[in-house]
Write a structure and sequence with these properties.
Growth Hormone, Chain: A; disordered C terminus; mainly alpha; 2 domains; globular
Amino acid sequence: MDKQTSKFRWVVFASVLFTYLLMASQRTAPGLITDQVMRDFQVTASTIGLLTSIQFFVYTGLQIPMGLLADRYGPNFFLIVGAILTGVGTIIYSLGTHEIVLFFARILTGTGDATIWVNMVLILGQWFNGKEFVRLIGLAGMTGSLGFLLATVPFSAWISLLGWRAAFFSEGLLLCLCGILLYIVLLKKPKQLSLTETASVKNKIPREKTMVLLKRIFSNRQVWALFCCHFGVVGAYVGFIGSWAVPYGMDVYGMTRSEASQFIMIGLIGALIGAPLASWISSRLGTIKLPYVMVHITILMSWSSFLFFHGHPPLFMLLLLFFIIGFGFGASALTFALVRQTFPMIESGLVSGIANTGGFLSAVLLPSIFGVVLDYFHSGLGNSDGYYYGFITPVIFSLVGLMGVSMFKEKRQENGYITSNQTS
């Protein structure tokens, strides 16, 4: 029986997405205990900042190698190992007695986290046909946003109940159990059920040498269009929301920290809606590029609105802008629907890794650039000049994204598969 006609594919879908939910929550969960870590370990704010960013540096740096390895050896093994690494890293974090241990734990967590998205995309591509994949990739993107939501009030309540060490230990243990679950669901059970790949996946083209493959992929304009596309829509949201959104509300609008943090929730709601809705619209229209172009235009206009109002749009409009920007981030899952539609399965892991690198590279760059601008203008309460000039950065990033998606040449195919000569 083919995997794509088996009812067991929904068990795979649920297991993989549950694991992704937990792994995504661990990207931001340590932010809930910043003050406690600073007090318990007697470290400075700059150390905490480095501790926070190191996981994303590791994640970003491993996307292309992970894509290449997943294409060569298959995604199942790496996803299983990634879940266990993330769990072990989280457990070590909960048991740490020195800041060096915390850094080691976050490196382990970042290494495990780097396996999830690329391998999940490949696994869903193996178990679902092209039309199903376009719809389900939106749900996968929504799951990541739910993971961020899990790392707010729910996990905060769990920390209050157990203490931060016990809370993180239990989360790490659950992730290790997810690794065991994935072993059963992805490797053991399919063999027992005699589930096979579809014919289009089994009839693969001969493997190229690694350097030949890399040279061909990196010289492909379609790949760089996807890189730019993801660079523009992901980093502007993740980079700003994760660093300067709350200070912006406090400095420019005089809000309390609690009031300003509600903007993050508004953006998160937009992301939760944007991921499945954009995928559903694309599936209904039978095209991915057209709705994705509209998303990029809307995001560019939204960031440009901050410049139009000199960094201080009306409050009701500010809420709408955060929602739209979050919606666009959710819709960024369409980048990988384009990968699945355009490139053969044998290359989609590497291409997905390159595209995902673009998104998280911009997420790493934007906070630093924005911070330099704010320092230059000495922004503070009631002073919006620094933020006004700072918003030029996400506008430029969004423009890069629009150029990328506009340059991309969409290709249609039956059942979501194409031949290798279509990638040139």
